[in-house]
Amino acid sequence: MLKKLAVALALLPMAVQASNLPDYPFIHVGGEGFLRVMPDMGEIDFDISAFDADTNTAVAVVQARVAEVQALLAEQGGDPGQDTEAEVSFRDMRKEMRKSANPDPNASPEYEIRSAVHIVVRDLSKWTAIMQGLLSKPNIDHMSTGFGKKDRLQTEQELTAIAIKDAQRRAEGMAAGFGKKVGAVTAISSGQLRNLTNAVGLLPVDFYNNRRGTSAKSADKDFLSIQSLQWSQTVDVIFRIK
C-alpha cells in the first residue's frame, strides 16, 4: 500500500504539468516583428557643475548656466514646464565633496555644486540648434541623449500585427510539413517591446564628459545627428491543428 502511494505521489507533478497542456492537437510558435522608424522627439540629460573655493561663487556659476539654458530654449520656441517645442526641468542643486588625486590631509574639504537637467525636444527641427548651443557652454558634463516616438502605442500595435503574421507563417509551414492546416488561435501572449539600438526604451545612446572644458568636436557628430529607431516585438501563439 505504501509503495503504491509513493509511486502515485511521484507521478503527481507530471500529471499536473500535463493537465496544463491543451487537450487538442496544437502548434506552439513564436513570431517577431521589426520596424525601423524615424523618431519625432528627443531627450537630453546632463549636469551643470561648478567648483570654487567659495561655495557661493560656484552656486552663482550654476545659476548663470541655468539661466543660459532657459534662454537657449526660449530662442527655439520652448518654455520651461509647458507643452511646447522644448521643455526643461532642473533638479535642486546639490553639493558634492570633490575628490583630489593627491589629497592633503590638513586641507579643508572642497565641494562641487551640481544640478541635473532634463530636456524634452518635441520638435526635432530644433535639435541641432539646441545641441550646438549646449555643447558650446562650459560647466556642462555627463550628457546623454535618446530618441522616441510620440505615438508609441500605435507603433507597438503595428509591431504586434507584424509579429502575429510572422507567427501565422511559421505555424502554416510547420503544419504543412505533416499535411495539416492551421486552425483557430487559442492563446496568444506578447513579449516586451525591445529597442534594438539602445536595448530598451529611451536609454542614453551617447555620452559626453566635458568636466575639464575640453573640445567636444569628436562627439559633435553623434549628438547632432538624429538616429533612427529599430524596434522589435515578439509574440507566442497556440494554434489548433485541423
UniProtKB/TrEMBL annotation:
InterPro entries registered for this protein in UniProt: 26kDa_periplasmic_antigen (IPR052022), SIMPL/DUF541 (IPR007497)
One Pfam family matching this protein: SIMPL
Keyword annotations: Signal
Domain of life from the UniProt record: Bacteria
Name of this protein: DUF541 domain-containing protein
Signal peptide: 1-18
One GO BP: DNA damage response
Organism: Duganella vulcania
